[in-house]
């Protein structure tokens, strides 16, 4: 697939794994769940969710593990960067915004799993907040 003017690119810290995505109709949000915190090592994760057809690996092959009964999390085996997750039904790819070459290209529009937000994390945005999965979540 040829790179278009609207496509975004990203990858891991060491450059062994690279990807490209079409951000059209991407769902972009924060996730406060415990699993995402542990996987990212951060108090909150910022994600962009796209259909499988909108995401393409362009270099390398990430390692993966089943983090739940319904999804796989993919990471660089060389440097450990958490890259993206996929659902077992093959509907979507949720990629970490911090792995984009230009992470400012997409901005979160909501918070998922607000019920799990850490008490000491103060966020002053006025974005919609969902106690658990947002209703539009594909996974």
How would you explain this protein's 3D organization?
The two termini are 25 Å apart. The chain is 5% helix and 34% strand. The model has no long low-confidence stretch (mean pLDDT 92). It is mainly beta and 139 residues long. It has a single domain (8-116), classed as Metal Binding Protein, Guanine Nucleotide Exchange Factor, Chain A. The protein is built from one helix and ten strands. The protein is globular and about 40 Å long. The strands form two sheets. The chain has a seven-stranded mixed sheet with strand order 6-7-8-9-4-3-10. Strands 1-2-5 form a three-stranded antiparallel sheet, with no helix packed on it. The longest helix is centred in the N-terminal third of the chain and has 7 residues, at 34-40. 32% of the residues are buried. It has one helix at 34-40; strands at residues 8-11, 18-21, 27-31, 45-51, 55-59, 63-66, 71-75, 82-87, 92-96, 111-112.
